[in-house]
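Hi R.,

Here are the chain sequences for the assembly we discussed:
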Amino acid sequence: MENKNVLVIGGGIAGMEAARRLLQLGCEPVIVEQSDHLGGHVAGWHKLFPDMMSAPELVEQMAAGLDGVTVYYRTRVANMNRLGSGYSVMLSNGMSLQCGAVLISTGFRLFDASKKEEYGYGVYDHVVTNSDLEAWFGGAPDDRIPDSPARVAFVHCVGSRDLKAGNPQCSKVCCMTAIKQAIEMKEKFPSAEVWCFYMDLRLFGKKYEDFYIAAQRDHGIHFVRGRVSEVSEDIHGHVVLKAEDTLAGTPVKLNADLLVLMAGMLCNDDTQGLARMVHADVDSDGFMRSRDNIYRINESNRPGIFFAGACTGTKTVPETVAEARAAALDIYNYLNGRD
Amino acid sequence: MEGIDFGFGLSKSSSVQLDKVDLTLYRRLEALEPGVRVCMACGSCTSTCTAGPWSGMSVRKVILNLQRGKDVGRMLSCCMLCGKCTMVCPRGINTRHLILSLCRIYEKV
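And here is the predicted structure of the full complex:
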């Protein structure tokens, strides 16, 4: 290895896991993280399906493997150029680095639910997102969540599978997240009626279908196949949902005390800026374009630029971790002149 | 034999033979408004329809019935062309144009 330095852009779980593995392989990873903590979105989550593992504990466990890795917090990549066989990088903190390879692990951003004005996020008193609810499960106070709600409604596909929101793809984790959170709400408020409004239930992963069965059988959660078209607020402060029960073929309304919007995943805008610096391709969905989507997901079209995690598309936590490990090995082989 | 009453009758089957459906109307609509192909039957149009709860009007059902070779003329007459369904469609289908196109097709039938 001529240059063992590897720049890891983004200190979420993809960047953390890749850095840990690169360190084990004898490389010298440097993590650049724009926030003041590692773990990204997962650090702010409460519990992870399907094992209901504590998300902060997972991040803590992963961080323990990073002894010896340099991490720059509150830092961004200001500029990045091809130089010789590697990359010359300038950081926003004034540091400059010469790297043999770069890993883009910038993850995703959550769809801004207030853009779907018809759902009233930020307008009505009792509308939260999946992310808000997870923070509340984790102990953060939230005035929008009533003390003892009689009815809680979850709306799937908020800003996903929505051409009008500029986001045609399925965010894929939200169906499962909605069912997980619906069960958690039912456990907190056993007398509450919990409703999920979905277009299609996409429960593709190991044990996901078990959650669905448990939600029906053990928790009595109601499922309505229909997309909520609009939400209003009545004089008592309840949210009123309108949908079509497409299986019964009839329009339906529901008065609820709390509405939870399953906001989808989008690519980080910043990632596209990074892509431009090194002439890496952005895909038609706004995420980074891999060399292919089957065999070389970790590789970009540029030498020495690799991807891990949700920067190339929506991913679950285990998928992200597995990709980060694969990317670390790809980078190690690249630096050693092997394909 | 025809006149004999056996005390029971035969009900007509509501089952649709998919390979024998008459898609003439649907194909004509496709030609005028190709957006009809991308409907995923989410029901947003129907739930937001001003006329729907009282008249049974449902763009989703109109599309589905056409795909199954059924007549939708009566349903259409309840549409007020307000266009709310066009605003909420997540697939961006111009449902208002779809309904107007169908009206034109029915005029010529």
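The CA atoms of residues 69 and 102 of chain B lie 14 Å apart. The mean pLDDT of chain B is 91.

Let me know if anything looks off.

Best,
T.
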